Each structure stands twice: as structure tokens, then as C-alpha cells.
Amino acid sequence: MGWTRFRLPTVFDSGLGAVRLAGEVSDDVPHVPVARRMDSWILSVVTAGRGLYREPPTGDRRGVEETITSGSVLLVPPGRTHWYGTRGNAVWSELFVVFDGALFDTLAAAGTLRARRPAPLDPVPSMAGLRAVVSAEPVDAAAADLRLLALAGWLAELRAAERDGAAPEGRDAGLARAARRLAADTRAELDLHDLATETGMSYDRFRRRFAAVHGRAPAAYRNEARLAAAAQLLRLTGLGQREIARRLGYSDEFHLSRRFRARYGVPPGRYRRGA
Predict the structure, then answer these.
(1) Does the record bear Transcription regulation in its keywords (predicted)?
(2) For 14, 133, 217, 236, which has the most beta carbons within 10 A of its beta carbon?
(3) Do 129 and 62 fall within a single domain?
(4) CA dist 127 to 76, 133, 182, 203, Å?
């Protein structure tokens, strides 16, 4: 529980662009006290809770007020005055990134990066992958550029998901929410029985339905997301295996290495050297 600003000790502002700020709110009140206008793109993905998004009327543009729900993805372009948050200091969970630069200008010109008002989307590109990208601490400009390219790839996957269709409704909506929460649960702290209860199913029924829809059981789905996050941290950062294991909730680097080798066929060190 709390608000975390990912540590960005150096902002590498290359020809591609830069990540200006990134952070995560976990069951806490979001810190956007007043309407703001920024010179960068803002990406927000809400994984739990509800809130509001507002734009004041400006010139010929009418004002906007829309509800934010769990699973909502929001993209605010540079120069747009806006506010988002919760009502009455209610809590939510959110991952956010502030970024800009020539790479993202190119994506915007091509229609791949577009303003998006808050709306659920399923499937959302990997939350574990996004968290790995934005929480990475690049050791040099080359690593920072790799992180920007990975973020651009995530945004391209988001646009592809928008084209493919909207979020599911009815009985599969609860399973979609569960999948989003599992993909974001990189430290494996979420109790699967509690998650089943939230969907209104017994654990056995939840496990069967989830596997039928997503192709694997809930625990395996989460493990896949955690290992994908480990792979991205190996490729994009200079973090040691012990620190990666700690961040992703593995008991130690040997536990991570065993799971990683079983999934990717090589140990983490060899994977990093070949990345």
C-alpha cells in the first residue's frame, strides 16, 4: 500500500526521447490535486478502483468528465489541460509514465500513438512488461534508448489491441479483470482464492474457467508474466540477478534461475549476454 515514484537518477534525453517520470500507486490516493497541462505524454493504467477524468472547456472544445474503472487505459497528449483522480480521497492502484521525444512524435504522426480517454481494454499488453520497462534504471544512454524502444513497442501493442476489439462484457469481464490483476502481480502477493471470490466463483470453477479462456491456469498465467518481466529487466538494465529476484518476489536468485531456465531454455546470465 502506498505511492511509489520509480527512481530515475538520470534522465537520459537522447535523440529518441526520455522518460520524465514514472511511478505506481498501490491502494492509495492518487496525487493529482489540481488540473494540469504538461509538455509530455501521460500514460495511466488503473488496475484497481474507480475515479474520474476531467478536461475543462477550452475555446471550441467542450469540457469532458468520464468515469475511470479498473482496467482503464488513459493517454493524455502534450499540451492538454486535464485532471484525473478519485472521489473523496478514495484509493486506487495505478501505473503511470510521463514521456516525450522524437520517437513518440513519429508514433503519433503515424497514428500509432493517439490520445485515449479512459476505457477498459482487454487484452491489455503485459503490465509486468510495462512495469519492468518503466522501473528500469538504465546504466547508460544505450540502455535508456532500449527502454524507450520497449515502451514504444508496448504502445504499439496497445494500439493493436484497440483495433482488435473492446473489453469483454458479461461473465467473461470478471475473468478479464482477474487476468489484468495477475499480470500486474509480479511479486505473487495476490491470493488466488481471494481473486476467485471477487469473480463470484468457487476457486475450482474459477481455475477451470480461467484456463478455458486464457489457455493456462491462474498461477501459470502469473508466473509467465513474472518471467517475462525478468527477461525485460535482464535485457534493459544492469540489475544483478539477486536484485531482479528480489523485485519479482522470488526467494533468491537460484529460484529465479531455475524457473527462468525452465521457461527460456537458458539461464539468466546467458540470456542477458545473448540479448
Answers:
(1) yes
(2) 133
(3) yes
(4) 19, 10, 9, 24
Would residue 163 count as lying in a domain?
Answer: no
Total Cβ atoms within 10 A of residue 168 = 16
Instruction: Answer positive or negative: Cα dihedral of 25, 32, 45, 111.
Output: negative
Whole domain around residue 222: which residue ranges?
A: 168-275
Same domain, 118 and 195: no
Residue pLDDT, tens place only, 77-136 = 999 999 999 988 899 999 899 999 999 999 999 999 999 999 887 667 777 778 777 777
Is the per-residue pLDDT at 47 higher than 50?
A: yes
CB proximity list for 39: less than 8 A, separation 6 or greater = 78, 79, 100
3-class state of residue 36 by DSSP: strand
Whole-model pTM: value is 0.71
Q: Angle at Cα 46 formed by Cα 164 and Cα 187, nearest 5°?
A: 100
With CA atoms as reference, report the closest residue to 47 among 130, 114, 107. 130
DSSP assignment string, 52-79: EEEE--BTTBPPEEEEE-TTEEEEE-TT
